[in-house]
Amino acid sequence: MKSSLRLVGQPWKHGRLSGTLRFAVYMALQLAIFFSVFPWIAVPALAVIMLGVVEGLSWGRWLVRSRILLIATALPALTGLPWGTVSAQTALILWAPSLLRSSRLALVLVSAAWLSAGMSAVELRDALMVLLRPLGPQASGRIARATSLTMAFIPWTRMELIRADEAARLRGSNPARRPGRHLVALSVPLVSRSLEKAKRGSEALSLRDPRFGV
Amino acid sequence: MKLEFRNLSKIFPDGTRGLDGASLIVETPLFMVLSGRNGSGKSLLIRHALGLETPDAGAVLIDGKLLGAVLPETRRRVALVFQEPEHQILGVTVREDAEFGPRASGERPESYRVRVDAALGAAGLNGFGDRLCAGLSGGEKRRLAVASALVAGPELIVLDEPFNGLDWAGASDLLGVLLGLRASGVGVLVVTHDLEKCLAHADRLVVMEGGRVVREGSPAELWDELPLLGLRRSAGSVSELAGMTWQEFFR
After folding, report:
1. Chain A residue with Cα closest to B152
2. Residue A61 reports pLDDT greater than 70
3. Per mean pLDDT, which of A132-136, B23-27, B74-78 is the most reliable?
4. pLDDT tens across B178-191, in order?
5. Per-residue pLDDT at B233 exceeds 60
6. What is the value of pTM for the model shown?
């Protein structure tokens, strides 16, 4: 109750949309991204970019930092290039579906960057609880618990990734020279530790949640 | 409560014998230390108490009833603190983690808020409620795991290697918490090979070897045998240790 009052009562924080309102805008953007076609997809794109600019988010810096992810989002468009078509108009018609797919993927990343730039994980969970309240306390409680568990996993995964990266570098792995080999070196410990963490986590859940696994 | 392990045996798929007819009775309230070399089956034994492992032979009894028949109730009465508390933390903030159990049971906040505050206080985490779990030190994480376990009001708290990775200050804080629990009537079962940090305060010492309980008695009774059992004991005599308060011991 206290958190919902706080979230509803302060929709703007330091010149930024915050709490439930921010999350609701984010959800509206997702709907717009997934249901818009060309050229209307430009509307949610412009909206999220403008929101970021108004809040002082540096999109240029974000583009540089996220370049690898953005290259990945461009893959559908690249693989769908209509080679050897007769006219530009036909090519564009053939290319549109894959281009739309890439645009949606990129906009999902852009909107997530905007959301996380102004909202902590705890605020996100609180906002989710407020929005899910109409589902009833049991369902909303379960979803909020699942979100909470997932969020508790994120800092752990990040720390493990840093540890694995440091260990690999100390043992001679060079991501600049051999990025593929470095990724493999990271993935093995990360996957095995994640499996161990998942096993222990499910044990902890079964001990602490009487409705789980008994 | 009376927790009884009766002739437990466990063989792993690769043929390793984890437990080999282990029998032990734990009756609360008491401060019991379960010790033994690495691989002697200590952690495996206590995992059976909460149904995290199923024995190939033997039985676990709670107040004379088979564990399978009273498992949900047992998980409320017996709390386990993992060797790696990190795995046990299920909340984003300290308060959220401590509240996880009652929230999962569908309790209303007004019914558990006082209990959660008391548990955080007992574990020395007053004022930590809004801190992120990811930012806690190793000792604080372990105390949070203890606090979260205490919220359910267990009759017995089992700690697997609780002093691992803690410096003397952290271990001293944790031992203080455990002795406070013991004084308030909660049973404490500490699984450790680090006897120096807790033996002086134990009511009973149990030693395992090769998957079975080989010795059981008071620390004074077993003091001279400890090196023969592969366990390191602190300098001095057990009577000297027993005469000390835990603060004196750590000093």
Report:
1. A208
2. yes
3. B23-27
4. 888 889 999 999 99
5. yes
6. 0.71
Most A CBs within 10 Å, among B70, B80, B81, B100, to test the A interface: B100
ipTM of the complex: 0.70
Could you give the CA distance from residue B82 to residue A65 in angstroms, rounded to a whole number? 38
Average pLDDT over residues B202-217: 93
Q: Residue A11's pLDDT band (boundaries 50, 70, 90)?
A: low
pLDDT, residue A1, reads 36
> Where are the domains positioned within chain A?
1-119, 141-214
Taking Cα atoms as reference points, which of B2, B38, B14, B31 lies closest to residue B158? B31
What residues of B are in contact with residue A209 (Cβ under 8 Å)? Answer: 100-101, 104-105
Contact A132, A27 (CB under 8 A): no
Place A9 in a pLDDT band, splitting at 50, 70 and 90.
Answer: very low
Helix (H) / strand (E) containing B29: none
Q: What residues of A are in contact with residue B74 (Cβ under 8 Å)? A: none
Whole-angstrom distance between the N-terminal and C-terminal Cα of chain B?
34
Question: For the purposes of burial, counting CB atoms within 10 Å of the CB of B54, is it exposed (0-12), middle (13-18) or buried (19 or more)?
Answer: exposed
Residues of chain A contacting residue B150, judged by C-beta atoms under 8 Å apart: none
Select the residue of A125, A137, A212 nearest B92 (Cβ to Cβ).
A125
Residue-wise DSSP of B180-247: HHHHTT-EEEEE-S-GGGTGGG-SEEEEEETTEEEEEE-HHHHGGGGGGGT----SS-HHHHHTS-HH
Asked whether the predicted pLDDT for residue B151 surpasses 80, the reply is yes
Closest residue to A208, CB basis, from B93, B100, B132: B100
Min Cα separation B226/chain A (Å): 32
Q: Is any Cβ of chain A less than 8 angstroms from the Cβ of B100? A: yes
Report yes or no: B88 at the A interface, CB cutoff 8 Å.
yes
Structure tokens at A98: 């894959």
**B91 vs A148, A207, A210: nearest CB:** A148
List the one residue out of B180, B172, B138 whose CA is nearest residue B251: B172
8 Å CB contact of A148 and B90: yes
Do the chains contact at A208 and B101, CB–CB below 8 Å? yes
Using the Cβ of B49 and the Cβ atoms of chain A, whether some distance falls under 8 Å is answered with: no
Angular region, B211: left φ>0, alpha ψ -120 to 50, beta rest: left
Distances (CA, A) of B139 to B31, B85, B142, B167: 21, 9, 5, 8
Contact A114, A48 (CB under 8 A): yes
Find out whether the peptide bond into A39 is cis, omega within 30 degrees of 0: yes
Strand B156-160 and strand B78-81: pairing?
parallel
- CB nearest to A214's CB, from B71, B96, B100: B71
